[in-house]
């Protein structure tokens, strides 16, 4: 069990890679604007190198070397981030174990977990498969997967895209997206799509009525949020299309995409739905995944 972090803090998982440091820079920007502490977390797996008992001293030496190197790296990152963000409270911890388990544990106190989409491995999807997706599936708070080879490490005025489908997780995503857009002075693009054969309507409903119904659903989902965040310019996109394809299209010019962990056609408590999975793996910009049972 990892020690808890200050409640409401932003936690970023790092592994020494350039991507994870850029994710940490992005997390530091958010923490500074939201005036919450930033916690840098690094995992050091308890790897067994030798099976021979006589080699235990050598193995302990390897573990100590890995632990020392990890602490030096994280301490250096913390120092750099403090220099870049004077006044920001930055702490760091190195934990034994796997990154996914540690970040999920820390998410119980955090307001946001940030993790890079790639790591040190030559297989660039390895960290994504072993850490980012696992954390997004099980965290107790929203999870930001920092993506994009050319994405800015600093939030800017480009649009924030949010997927809307009427589910509880979508409601969480809308709330997060409005708050983010308001904080950073960015416009919001609310995207709602439908596929004719998947609509939960009687077969007597004509396709011409589908658009009217879906447009009304989008308006209902956004009702109240514009009043709460009057400074946010909202663009509505409502069309018959695959949600994953349309969100990826809108993401091309966006700084962030926000989605629920699963939509109205998934069982509650299920793992990431196909749309969120697709975005986490392919989006050209960071993706925030909100779970229906996550804390606000």
UniProtKB/TrEMBL annotation:
This is Universal stress protein. GO terms for molecular function: ATP binding. Residues 9-146, 158-291 form the UspA domain. Belongs to the universal stress protein A family. Pfam families: Usp. Keywords: ATP-binding, Nucleotide-binding. InterPro entries: Rossmann-like_a/b/a_fold, Universal_stress_UspA, UspA.
